[in-house]
Write a structure and sequence with these properties.
By secondary structure, the chain is of the alpha/beta class. It contains seven helices and five strands. α5 packs across α6 and α6 crosses α7.
Length: about 200
Amino acid sequence: MSRAVVLVVVVMFVAACAPQSEAISDSQDALGRLKKGNLRFSENHPTHPHEGAARLRETSVGGQHPFAVVVACSDSRVPVELLFDQGIGDLFVIRVAGNVCGEDELASIEYAVEHFGVRLVVILGHSQCGAVTAVVQGAKEHSHIDHLLQRIDPAVKAARRESPLLAGEELIAASVRQNVLHTMEELLKGNCLPSCVSA
């Protein structure tokens, strides 16, 4: 079955720094749950767990217990809970164009790890990312968008260095992958998870 959005996932495993999330024993368990949900989605057999007013009430009264953090692009074609067939309270999702990690995103990840005991942080890139494409094509913006594009530029340069003959869609795809890796590096350099991160 063909999908308009192809996912690139690079995973960072996070050791426990707070009580672990509900029914998840470790980062491998969390990753397995995401993979199974994504398989259900890609095969067009989602179960749509934890939806509706009852689940909303449950998480309002009992608090949230997400089992993973997902840093994803703001692109409307990348609805994270749907892609992983998860529901209300299952994922702590941080969405920003180009799935970059600045101070606010780093603080949000740190919060989820420290307060909810999240065991897994996923950096999620996607095909046809407009932000990455803009950098590959040399777009010049004179607004806050330019600041965001500058965060992606090192990834595009890395893709060009690694594969100098790539162009067009192939270069964009390679840049998306490099951008995921670059975001992960930024996360590690940001010291947002002191003594909590293991590669």
